[in-house]
Amino acid sequence: MLLSDDHDVDGFVENAIGPVLDYDAERLTDLTRTLEAYFASGSSPTNAAEALHVHPNTVSRRLERIGELLGPAWQKPGQVLEVQLALRLQRTREVLTRRRAATAPARPPAGPAD
User: Fold this and answer.
1) pTM of the model
2) How far is CA 11 from CA 18, 40, 113, in A?
3) In a domain? residue 110
4) Please, what is the end-to-end C-alpha distance for the chain in angstroms?
5) For residues 83 and 90, is the Cβ–Cβ distance under 8 A?
6) Would the pLDDT of 3 be above 50?
7) Which among 8, 72, 73, 109 is least buried, having the fewest CB atoms inside 10 angstroms?
8) Are 93 and 40 in contact (CB under 8 A)?
9) What integer pLDDT is reported at residue 111 of this predicted model?
């Protein structure tokens, strides 16, 4: 991605984790956060469950759902790297969007036309 002529970050994120993001948005679930906790814990469902304050079985069920959404190869090394990079890019975009919104100048209220 970094070395290509096409820096389509949106396309990369969509291709790597789009189904998970869509699922979360449509159903108000925490699959994305579960993935982040799972990778942050060294791919340990038990440690991810502790970080998320949920039962380990909950994490296992969420990981199964993620597998259904991303396909059975999502935990293979090449795809894991893509998923992790897409998660980081998505999180970075969210932070930048929040910062821009917080620092955007306030618009003056609309008054009567002169």
Assistant:
1) 0.81
2) 9, 24, 43
3) no
4) 52
5) no
6) no
7) 109
8) no
9) 59
**CATH code assigned at 84:** 1.10.10.2840
Residue type at 51 in one-letter notation: A
pLDDT bucket at 112, cuts 50 / 70 / 90? low
- Split into its structural domains, the chain has a count of 1
Backbone dihedral angles phi then psi of residue 110, each to the nearest 5 degrees: -70, 130
Query: How is 46-92 classified by DSSP, letter by letter?
Result: HHHHHHHTS-HHHHHHHHHHHHHHH-TTTTSHHHHHHHHHHHHHHHH
| pLDDT tens digits, 93-107 | 888 888 888 887 766
Say which residues have a Cβ less than 8 Å from residue 35's Cβ, sequence separation at least 6. 17, 20, 66, 83, 87
Domain of 49? 9-91
